[in-house]
Amino acid sequence: MTQRLKSRTPLIFLLFLLFLGAGLVTAYLSFQPELPASVAEKISSNLEQQLKYLESEATQVKNTLRDTIITTPETSCPFFLYDHGRLVQWSNNQWVPPVSIFADTFDIKLIHDGNVDNLVRRWNISSDKFLVSVIPLQRSFKITNEYVSPEWNEEIFPSGNIRVLDANSTLGTPVCANGRCLFRVSFFKEDMPSHVRTKFSWQRRCSSYLHIDFFQL
Fold first, then answer.
1. The pTM is what?
2. How do the domains of the chain map onto residue ranges?
3. Cα–Cα distance between 84 and 86 in angstroms, integer?
4. SS3 160
5. pLDDT for 144-156, tens place per residue?
6. Taking the CA atoms of the chain, what radius of gyration do you get in angstroms?
7. Closest by alpha carbon to 97, among 75, 115, 82, 84?
């Protein structure tokens, strides 16, 4: 029996080294920054889910549009109704899409407005009336302190160390949803999220906006 144990000792020691090495490699890789393409792919997946929620909510809004002043769920994105070039109903006034951006016909578009980046979705109701909603992406400040700090949509981005760029920019990595590249993201290598930090929550949707029932003019 003793002889058998002695003969197996090198094998057991070798297996121990193999498992130890595998564990160390796994631990090392888990804390390494992810590649930009990998992070952008996860952002794209999150964005697709957000857009899916938005389309569902917009369908409910459009179905009641002719009957009543619209109210929205507490976790809903803000909605805006424009008629003959005028804003006539809105659910939030934290950031109101300027009428001037709708001179360019689009159904979804990244809008930079000062220090705010938003994804604006538009649905035509008639030739003169259209419904709009906004998915907030991020808000940045030139100076950060205890009173102001960067804000970002945690349902889409893993961290705030991300620059949102136009889809036609030559920089960054494209973020695509439903077959369309809507914008690009760029970040410094040292700011890349590690594998253990790229977890996302789907509970709040557009919760960065406070819920307010529709206002009407």
1. 0.72
2. 1-30, 34-216
3. 6
4. coil
5. 777 778 889 999 9
6. 24
7. 82
